[in-house]
């Protein structure tokens, strides 16, 4: 199970990673634009546990993710439902570190970039983004959808299906890579 | 390295299912637990697993039901935070998501998921009271009485010790708590309660085990 999940995640990594293997906190999003991680100084601290279903290449894998953000940085861990850690990535506002799969895991900067793109306020995302624009659909006083658009094409699409980020459920689409993340907040799910 | 990691995974699950009646004396607790296990074809328990990662503030807590069948394998049913069940059989691993009409089954050959195949091997070693197999990897220390006992497993091999600091099992008539301390500081605690031995699977369990050979995939 663990290996299968790993295989899936590695496949995702291969599909989506425009990884800059230079030790920096910047990466290239699938489709071309570049994103540099933003510090967490002005972010309201939060922590969420999520069920993440990753779909790609007609396959679907599931993991439990735990995400914490505070003034010290961002920490993300992915686990199997058994509790075995698949990966752990952190950004201390200066350096990105990844544990568990040195050298072969998903691009940690890209993972954290997706976290920020999906959950950070638009102005913070814009500050880290180069080569694309951020378009929020706030028509109902809530961000129902966010798109990162480059040359008229959607690079990343986030649909907020329940509540506001980061606490709500969301769907993250990476059209260029054919990858979809369906994210369910487990804290909310537990009370349903 | 992968073998060691698989062993770790295996031990975490295998020990979780060690919900056997207790031995009459503590001199060789491990072997006696195995002897007691043979009294029952089926053992059931409720579990709460708490995984605390050193780098994170909040632990991951899962809970549900565990069924061990000597004949069929292990049924690990997670109820919270969301429903998903795993049947760990001799040759197949079945993942069952959701419940009732919404359930989704995914069948995988153990050769395709060698990590869980290793789980099965370690599991059988534990439940078969194969202390030799355990002692190949651990220094085993048991203490206490049949009413209250504990077993400490300390890695013998440096490769394993790189990942695992040690494991502790404790309980009374049944195993009540398992603690797994990883070298990186992560800590897993599995609490077992309402453990019961039985002669056979119930209908629902039999259905879950019995259909694992349908091989239909999702």
Describe the structure.
The complex is a heterodimer of chains A (192) and B (218). Chain A is of the alpha+beta class. Helix content of chain A is 20%, strand content 43%. In chain B, helix 1 packs across helix 3. Residues 1-27 and 212-218 of chain B have low confidence and may be disordered.
Features:
heterodimer; A: 192 residues; alpha+beta; 10-stranded antiparallel β-sheet; 13 strands; 20% helix; 43% strand; disordered N terminus; B: 218 residues; 11-stranded antiparallel β-sheet
Short description:
The complex is a heterodimer of chains A (192) and B (218). Chain A has 192 residues and is of the alpha+beta class.
Q: In DSSP terms, counting alpha (H) and pi (I) runs of 4 or more, how many helices of chain A?
A: 4
Overall pLDDT of chain B: 73
Low-pLDDT parts of chain A are 1-22
The structure class of chain A reads alpha+beta
Q: Uncertain regions of chain B: pLDDT < 50 for 5+ in a row?
A: 1-27, 212-218
The helix fraction of chain B, in percent, is: 25-40%
Please outline the helices and strands.
The complex is a heterodimer of chains A (192) and B (218).
Chain A: H1 2-16, E1 26-28, E2 34-36, E3 46-56, E4 59-70, E5 73-79, E6 85-91, E7 96-99, H2 108-119, H3 122-128, E8 129-130, E9 133-137, E10 145-150, E11 153-162, E12 169-174, E13 179-185, H4 186-189
Antiparallel strand pairs in A: 1-2, 2-8, 3-4, 3-13, 4-5, 5-6, 6-7, 9-10, 10-11, 11-12, 12-13
Chain B: H1 2-16, H2 29-37, E1 42-52, E2 60-69, E3 73-80, E4 84-88, E5 92-97, E6 104-109, H3 114-127, H4 131-137, E7 138-145, E8 148-155, H5 158-161, E9 164-171, E10 175-182, E11 187-198, H6 203-210
Antiparallel strand pairs in B: 1-2, 1-11, 2-3, 3-4, 4-5, 5-6, 7-8, 8-9, 9-10, 10-11
Helix pairs in contact in B: 1-3
């Amino acid at each position: 199970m663990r290996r299968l999940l790993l295989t899936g995640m590695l496949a995702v990594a291969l599909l989506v990673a425009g990884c800059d293997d230079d030790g920096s906190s910047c990466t290239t999003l699938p489709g071309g634009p570049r994103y540099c991680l933003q510090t967490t100084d002005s972010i309201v601290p939060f922590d969420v546990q999520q069920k993440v279903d990753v779909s790609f290449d007609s396959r679907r894998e599931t993991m439990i993710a735990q995400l914490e953000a505070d003034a010290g940085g961002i920490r993300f861990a992915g686990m199997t439902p058994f509790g075995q850690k698949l990966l752990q990535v952190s950004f201390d506002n200066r350096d990105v570190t990844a544990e568990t799969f040195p050298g072969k895991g998903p691009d940690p900067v890209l993972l954290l970039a997706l976290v920020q793109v999906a959950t950070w306020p638009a102005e913070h995302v814009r500050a880290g983004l180069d080569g694309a624009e951020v378009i929020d659909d706030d028509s109902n006083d809530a961000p129902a959808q966010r798109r990162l658009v480059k040359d008229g094409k959607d690079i990343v699409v986030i649909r907020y299906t329940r509540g506001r980020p980061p606490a709500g459920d969301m769907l993250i689409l990476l059209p260029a890579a054919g990858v979809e993340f369906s994210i369910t907040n487990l804290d909310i799910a537990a009370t349903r | 390295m992968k073998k060691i990691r698989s062993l770790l995974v295996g031990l975490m699950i295998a020990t979780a299912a060690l919900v056997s009646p207790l031995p009459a004396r503590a001199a060789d607790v491990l072997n006696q637990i195995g002897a007691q296990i043979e009294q029952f074809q089926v053992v059931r328990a409720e579990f709460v697993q708490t995984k605390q990662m050193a780098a994170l503030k909040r632990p991951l807590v899962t809970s549900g039901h565990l069924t061990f069948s000597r004949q069929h394998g292990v049924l690990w049913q997670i109820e919270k935070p969301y429903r998903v069940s795993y049947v760990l059989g001799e040759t197949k691993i079945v993942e069952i998501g959701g419940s009732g009409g919404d359930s989704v089954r995914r069948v995988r050959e153990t050769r395709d998921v060698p990590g869980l195949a290793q789980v099965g091997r370690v599991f059988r070693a534990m439940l078969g009271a194969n202390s030799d197999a355990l002692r190949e990897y651990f220094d085993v220390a048991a203490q206490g009485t049949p009413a209250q006992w504990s077993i400490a497993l300390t890695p013998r091999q440096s490769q394993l010790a790189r990942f695992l600091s040690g494991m502790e099992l404790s309980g009374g008539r049944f195993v009540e708590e398992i603690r797994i301390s990883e070298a990186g500081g992560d800590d897993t605690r599995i609490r077992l309660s309402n453990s019961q031995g039985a002669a056979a699977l119930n209908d629902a369990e039999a259905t879950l085990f019995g259909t694992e050979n349908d091989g239909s995939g999702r």
